[in-house]
Amino acid sequence: MIVKTDTKEKFHAITVAEPLLSAVMTADLSECLLSYLQNGVNMPGDNPRNVVLIMKEVDAVELPVAESLVRVQQQFYEQSASFVICALKPAVEDFLEQHEILELLNVTPTESEAWDIVQMEEIERELMDGDEE
User: Fold this and answer.
1) Distance CA 1, CA 120 (A)
2) Greater confidence, 46 or 132?
3) What's the whole-number mean pLDDT along residues 10-37?
4) Burial annotation 24-54 (CB, 10 A radius, 16+ → b, else e)
5) pLDDT band at residue 43, thresholds of 50, 70 and 90?
6) What is the CATH number of the domain that holds 117?
7) CA-based end-to-end distance of the chain
């Protein structure tokens, strides 16, 4: 599976460079994404474990991969990290909608909007941490 990673201040932008995310790629994709949750990147004062998954090059997704993305997203949120998917092609979005998966995912139309979501969730977590003290 081919992915391109770009590390930003608050998140990793991961672009999937495959036209088809087939069922046989499910484990590899999950492992790839969850590795960012476990390891993160140490930067001064921050450890961005948030991921923006850019799917602008993906033409089709098979059901096991789609279901896996829901589980991956859940694991990110359970560990106070963001996971946002963006730039879905209409065919992929329709497929996810038909299988009632789209509504379970944090999806934005553009990469910029995904970045905004990550930033807002980071602020929300900081505020929530402040309330607990």
Assistant:
1) 30
2) 132
3) 94
4) ebbeebbebbbebbeebeeeeeeebbbbbbb
5) very low
6) 3.30.750.24
7) 43
